Every structure is written in structure tokens, then in C-alpha cells.
Amino acid sequence: MFKSKIKSLTLAAFITTIAGALITFPQESFEASIRGLNMWWEIVFPSLLPFFIISEMLIGFGVVKFIGVLLEPMMRPLFRVPGIGGFVLAMGMASGFPSGARFTARMRQENQISRIEAERLVSFTNSSNPLFIFGAVSVGFFHNSNLGIILAISHYVSNICVGLIMRFYGKEDVPKKTVKYKSISIKHALRQMHITRLQEKRPLGKLLGDAVISSIHSLLLIGGFIILFSVINKLLYHMNITDLLAKGVEFLLSFIGFPETLSTPYIAGLFEITLGSQMTSGAANASLMQQAVITSFILAFSGFSVQAQVASILAETDIRFFPFFAGRILQGFIAAFITFLVWKPVYERLSYMSKPTNAHPVFGINDGGFTISIYHIVVQWGPLFTILCLILYIFISSAKMNQQKK
Fold first, then answer.
1. What DSSP string runs through 204-260?
2. Which of 67, 154, 162, 406 has the fewest other C-beta atoms within 10 Å?
């Protein structure tokens, strides 16, 4: 009872402080809100919506079940999750935060995985997508396409490492009895896909409409969290709370030989990865390797903004949030260590074979130009795509409401 009262007082004090800060810094709050909105409708919405809709269709047509049966012999012994975890992992890596959580929650709602399996799965299937790592961070902030290779290696390898570690989580879990096959059976996978499709009673138009509504609804929720945490991060900075927290980090950074100028970007990155990565790229008196290590940690930790998005998605199920949070801390340290470990053998060799590290890249095939070009196309046409999809969402929702009234 006492802990509950302390929690209530703490939450009330925090939200009251934020409300007071909004009144005190209206201009800064507005600018931060616009920044979060731009990030959402230029990049997040257009890059995630196709993945969300297609994934809903793949689930409805039984393709995910097909993939799950094929990947069962690999995913079960490695990560102690069903084969459909391979689909969640692949989609999470391709589309970025918080897709892994959304697909995991969907699998749990359909009772295709147990709660413990879902908690294992969600801990290592949320990651930044390649467009963000190569386009926004490495080129947009650091002006160095080679750095994207290092960040991607550390990010995705550390993700897999977390999955291998989390397989030991939940020893009390008793896995469902599954039929063991001596080899991968495509025939059996096709049969299961057919059965799943027959169980889906919705016609194609209804399935597509529901996929669009569900996907846009999730993205609206994600957009709200992005804007909220963009404002909170800005307010904490102007209230000098970020600098106060950074003082505690300075000792740890000096202990490992990192400059104190990285402390403030590190704290900012704990709240929001984009701002933290941007501030890290401009930190004075820090080498590129040191900046890369901090950025790797920030990308892996995901920031409280992404974690709040995941928490809201998991709240619709019985999946607990703490395993995901523990996985983010674990991945942060692993990613930072991998970046430090592969810096000389990978990055310095790449730099030697290509061009000076301080040169602005010429976007070509050899420097990741294809991914970077896609990123710039998304940024250029993203707002128009977002507006058109929102209009479509309004029409579909209105038609659905009219049908329900009839």
C-alpha cells in the first residue's frame, strides 16, 4: 500500500512538472512537437505502413504459418520460440521499431505462442531498420556511409546475441508439444498454410480494409508517442535536468576514457534515439570511434520513446514489459562492445580501401547509395503518402461505421 502511494505521488509530481514546463516553455514545446510530427509523417508512417498492411495480409493468407513450419527446426533450438518467430524477426529488422512488438502481440492474441515465448521473442525482434541506420544516422548525421556498416553489424549481431541469451529466460515454461520432423517438410508447410487460409472467413476486401484500419490505428498511436517524447526530451533539456543527469554519466565515461562531452548526448539518446544520435555526431573532443560506440548503445537501447510505444502494444496482451526492457539494456552494452571490437578490423580497413573518413560520400553502388537513395525518396514523398493514406483511412472507417449502423 505504501509503495502504491509513493508511485501515485511520483507520477503525479512528474506529470505536474511537465505541465508546468509546457506553460513555461511554450515556444520550445511547439518546436519540439513540430519536430516529432515531421519525423512521423515524413519517415515513420510511410516506411512502416506497407510492412504493417502486408504482414496482416500474410497472416490472413496463412503465409506466416507456412514460414513458421519451415523455420521451426531452426528457431526452436536456437531461441526456444516457434518457427513463426523467424517471420517476426525478419519483419522487425526490415521495418524497424516497434514492428517486432506488434507482430509478437498479434501472435500472442491468436494463441500461436505462449506468454514466455512471446516475452523471449519481443526481447530480440525490435530493431532499427537499415534506412534509419544508413540514411539518417550514418549519412545524415555523421556524413559517413562506411560508419553505417559498423552500426548495422553491431546492431543486428547484438540483437541475435540477446535472443540467444533470452532462450534461458523462463525455464518454468513448458513448450507445447509439437510434431517433430526429421527434415523440413514443404508439403506439411503448404498444408498448414491452406488450413489457416480456410479458417480465415473474411473475404479479400474485408481483410484488406481491416489491415489498413489496424495498421493506421497503430501508426497514429506511434505518432502520438513520438511527438510526446520529443516534447518531453526538449523540456528536460531546458529545465537542465538532462545536464544534471549527465553529471552522473561523466564519471563512467571518464572511467573508460571517453570525453565528458558525450554525456549529454548519451542522456538525450536514452529518451529519443534520433536526437541522441544527432547530438552524439556533433560532440566535441570525441573521436569517431567513441561517437560510434555511444551511438550503437543508443540505437540498441531504443530510447524511452520507442519503449513506451512497445509498452502500449504489449498492454493489449498478457506479455510483460520487463523482459523487453532488460533486453534493451543488454543489447546496448553488447552493441557498444561489438562496435569497439570490430572498429579496427572492419571500419579502418573500409576507410583505407575507399576514401578519407571526413569526406562527404558520393552516393553510388559501392557506398550504400541504394539504401540512402530510398531514404531520401521516403523523406521527399513521405508527407504526401501519409496524407493520402489518412484520407483512405477516414473513408474506410466511415464506410465501416455506416455498415455497422445498418
1. HHHHHHHHHHHHHHHHHHHHHHHHHHHHHHHHHHHTTHHHHHHHHHHHHHHHTT--G
2. 406
